[in-house]
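#onboarding

Welcome to the new folks! Below is a worked example of what a typical request in this channel looks like: someone posts a single protein sequence, and someone else replies with the predicted structure as tokens. Don't worry about understanding the tokens yet, we'll cover that in week two.

Example request:
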Amino acid sequence: MARTGQGSLAVLGGTYAAPRPQWKYFNRQGAAQLVSLNQTTPRPIVLRGFSKARDVAASDQFVLDTPAARRRHFDDREGHTYCMHLYLDYQDGRWPDVHTVRFSSGTHDWEEKSIRVEPVRAAKTAMVLLEFHQPQGAAWYDDLSLTSGDAADHNLLAAAGFEEEDPAAVETQAISAGYEKQVQTLLISVEAAAKSAALADALPALGRQIDALAASVTGKGLAACFPRELRDLDDAREKLALCARLLADRK
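Example response:
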């Protein structure tokens, strides 16, 4: 069941993981992916996706605009959800925004839905969440895309077509072991620098290690497959810069 290609993401209602036959939230199905945007200035962000449905009940209306609303939504509860979320985390560290679009209920062929956000703050990360939480029916997702700024033809999502044989996924698996070894080498260098009497002199070398580690992924065009790792490397750069400022203030 594919819109294009050979595959899609299939989700089924009435699938219970608990002893009692209830569609509590922990029985939800779907998929999620984190993307490092690292905007320096606010740029438009657009999420698009297609879904097909069979005998799906109407979705509940909800707005996830406050921490309390999100706790209620993700709590142990019964509900009906068939939607696509876009979470945006910002460079200033303030509480992230959640934007949601619901797919139509009932039975329908491939339906396109989109979310366009014009942020007033530079976005740091985005998380796409496909959520299906239904007591019945089935749905399929396919051909997702996430774009930022003027690069409307550059999809930031990995495996967005849910194909069984994805070349980027195969290459990611092939280099993941080597990447982890580089991470361990970096951690050893960080521990050694922390014990050094000349910590300030060691910081530039740590920065170069971090840049080389990121380049080992981005240089192969696999940034979309390593979103969490690249986010962590960005955080490491920020911490190095903070250490450098603190050491400079002590002089």
